[in-house]
Amino acid sequence: MEKFSREKRDNFFDGFILKYVSKDKLSKICDLACGYGGDLELLKRSADEIWGLDISHDAIGLCREKFSNDENVKLKIASAAHTGFDSDYFDFVIIRLGLHHIDEKKKVMEEAFRITKHGGKFIVIDKFRHNVLEPHVKSFLRKLLRKRTETSQMSLISKKEYGKIFSASKFRVLEKKILPYDRKNVGQFFVVAFEKI
After folding, report:
1. DSSP3 helix / strand / coil % (the chain, rounded to 5)
2. pLDDT at 181
3. Is residue 25 part of a domain?
4. Percent of the residues in the chain that have a pLDDT greater than 70, as a whole number
5. The total number of structural domains that make up the chain
6. SS3 for 95-114, per residue?
C-alpha cells in the first residue's frame, strides 16, 4: 500500500477540496474549524464571501492579521456545532482535521447540513482511531514517559462510529476515501464529500 508523506497527504487533501469547488466563483464558503487559515488561503479566491470559524481566540486573531487585506474573508469565534448562521446560507462547507477535536460530532453534521444550501457540498477531512487499543496504548505510554496527554486526541473515534454518524446525517455521500495507515500518525486519515439534497 502506498505511503503518504505529510506533504503528499496535504496535496491530496487540497486536490480533493478543489475538485468540489465549482469552476464558477461560489457565493459563500464556510470553514468550520479554520485554525490558522490554511483552507481560507486555499479557497479565498473561490468565493465572494468566505467565513472562517474557530473556537480558538488565538487562531482567529492570527487569521485576522493574515487576512487583513482580504475583504471577502470573514472570521468568527464560534463552535462548529453552533455557528449562528442562517439556514441554507453556504454553497460549500468544509471541516478539515477539526472534527476529531470536537465531542459533538453528530451536532456538527446537523449544523453543517442546516447551513449548507440545497445542492451545496460539505467536505470532511479527518482521521479515525485505527484500532480499539490505540488510544489506551498511547495514553499509557504518555503517562509512562510522564508526558501530558493531548486533549485533541480524546475525541478520536473509530471508523465504524464515524460511519454511523455519517449514515444518520441527511447528506448524500458523493465520494469517500481512506488513506493508507501510517504508524507515525495517531489515527488513519479519510476524506468524504457530501451533498445536501
Report:
1. 35, 30, 35
2. 76
3. yes
4. 84
5. 1
6. EECCHHHCCCHHHHHHHHHH
Residue 58 lies in a domain: yes
Is residue 176's pLDDT more than 80? yes
pLDDT of residue 182: 72
Contact of 85 with 147, CB cutoff 8 Å: no
Q: Which domain holds residue 154?
A: 6-195
Residues 6+ apart with CB under 8 A from 120: 90, 91, 92, 93, 195, 196
Residue with cell string 496527554? 149
31: β partners: 52, 94
Determine, yes or no, domain membership for 182.
Answer: yes
Domain assignment of residue 1, yes or no = no
Domain CATH code at residue 180:
3.40.50.150
The string of pLDDT tens digits covering residues 96-147 is: 999 999 999 999 999 999 999 999 999 999 999 876 555 555 566 556 665 4
